[in-house]
TrEMBL record:
Protein's recorded name: YetF domain-containing protein
Pfam families in UniProt: DUF421
The keyword Transmembrane helix is assigned to this record: yes
Keywords: Cell membrane, Membrane, Transmembrane, Transmembrane helix
Bilayer-crossing regions: 12-28, 40-59, 65-85
Residue ranges occupied by any YetF C-terminal domain in the UniProt entry: 88-157
Recorded topology in the membrane: Multi-pass membrane protein
Keyword Transmembrane helix recorded: yes
Location in the cell: Cell membrane
Record-stated family: Belongs to the UPF0702 family.
Range of residues in the leader sequence: none
Amino acid sequence: MDWIYNVNDPLWETLVGSFLIFIVIILLTRMVGLRSFAKFTAYDFAFTVAIGSIISSTLTSSTSIVHGAIAITGLLALTYAFSALQKRFRPLDRLISNKPLLLMDGDQILYKNLKHARIQKTQLIAKLREANVLNFSEIEAVVLESTGDISVLHKTTLDSTETLSPDVLEGVRNSP
């Protein structure tokens, strides 16, 4: 019966520990940078790692089902609370979330931004090839997204008077 619930399980310590580990993972991921865990925000990565660890501990019988369920419930409550707080408090949102960063403005490579994002020029060029860019003059903008992906925005045609809508680059930083 101990595998379902054990009176010796440190339930409150687990909730506090879950919160602390979650914060540490977010902070470390923010320090290391966006490209460390492409396709994840720091927030997503912290949550995924923490949930995976709890599930692993529960399934390998190093903790009870109730203990694991309470830890997962605590993390889910924490993510819900963080989401609500991020919407209300912009400074918290800026602290937790990476904002997209402009890597190319038209045909100009922004080397300072590449350096800040820890992206090599060769990696940028590879991404341009993936996006079927034949010439820098075809590029309207290149953005490092908050997930670590790189988006290449093409000009509609070289002779077109149509320009990029400012709304498309809303929230994108021009400098680190």
